[in-house]
Amino acid sequence: EDQIQRHLIPWRDDPRGMIALAFTEPVAGSDNLLPCLDVKAGMKTTAVPEGDHYVLNGMKHFISNAYCARLYLIFARSDLTKPITEGASLFLVPRDTPGLSIGRVDDKVGQRLADNAEIILENVRVPKEDLVGEWNKAMVSRERSVRHSHAFEGATCVGPAQRAFEMALDWAKTRIQGAKPIIQHPNIAIRLGEMWAAIQACRLMYSRVAWSADNFQYFDTRLFNVVNPFCAESLMKITLDAMQIF
Ligand SMILES: Cc1cc2nc3c(=O)[nH]c(=O)nc-3n(C[C@H](O)[C@H](O)[C@H](O)COP(=O)(O)OP(=O)(O)OC[C@H]3O[C@@H](n4cnc5c(N)ncnc54)[C@H](O)[C@@H]3O)c2cc1C
């Protein structure tokens, strides 16, 4: 409650009050997510207690909204002798904290509004009251915070897939080859039908994950883990199919 009052309420009505969640590092991507239980695997950014502060050192990359965010949720290793499930902690760090700077901003083919960037941490001093959740238990907090985001990521794939399908459908109805609209050729009709079915499957899957994130007694970790790759792979296939129809 104290953290909400100090960090979130002042930005409540300000669209610039964006938060970025930072766990990925150049040497640690999937190892943070799976997570890998080898003690040498996972993030390398460190958090060391010093008086009434923690001192953070390290670097994050690929962080969505890192460039425009005003507040960061930063994961760091608080016990390097343990795997990240037992030795990582989570911190709230405002943008203007001395020692925090933004490095390279990535150029991407999609999601271009989410300005993915590096966050550099050099002796960043975080007051003890800005530890989020329990010391060494960041991965528990992470699981809670990403429950909804996987459904969101699935949904972001369906928008472009739906648009590619609609454009291909319109074209197939008007393009005449073989003396009739190409949609009347079975190969094109079947391809469009399969594209439509894949979009419905993605919608059902991310809706189910979103609903179960709110109704946690029905939460299925397996579905949660596959929704993102399933929707992303479907988007790739649907857009390639659409290109074949043009
Ligand atoms: C658009 C976008 C937004 C992002 N936003 C954020 C953000 O806001 N915050 C944040 O912290 N991170 C963010 N990330 C980073 C994202 O979490 C990482 O890209 C992801 O964890 C994968 O890590 P990596 O890119 O280092 O790939 P790697 O982990 O190096 O994976 C490379 C390949 O190896 C495979 N692989 C990896 N480990 C294994 C294994 N154990 N067994 C079999 N195969 C394996 C992977 O499936 C992949 O195909 C974002 C990434 C993207 C693309």
Automatic annotation (TrEMBL):
GO terms, molecular function: acyl-CoA dehydrogenase activity
Gene3D superfamilies (alphabetical): Butyryl-CoA Dehydrogenase, subunit A, domain 2, Butyryl-CoA Dehydrogenase, subunit A, domain 3
UniProt xrefs under InterPro entries: Acyl-CoA_Oxase/DH_mid-dom, Acyl-CoA_Oxase/DH_mid-dom_sf, AcylCo_DH-like_C, AcylCo_DH/oxidase_C, AcylCoA_DH/oxidase_NM_dom_sf
Ranges of residues in domain Acyl-CoA dehydrogenase/oxidase C-terminal: 154-246
Keywords: FAD, Flavoprotein
Domain Acyl-CoA oxidase/dehydrogenase middle: 20-124
Similarity comment: Belongs to the acyl-CoA dehydrogenase family.
Protein name: Acyl-CoA dehydrogenase
Taxonomic source organism: marine sediment metagenome
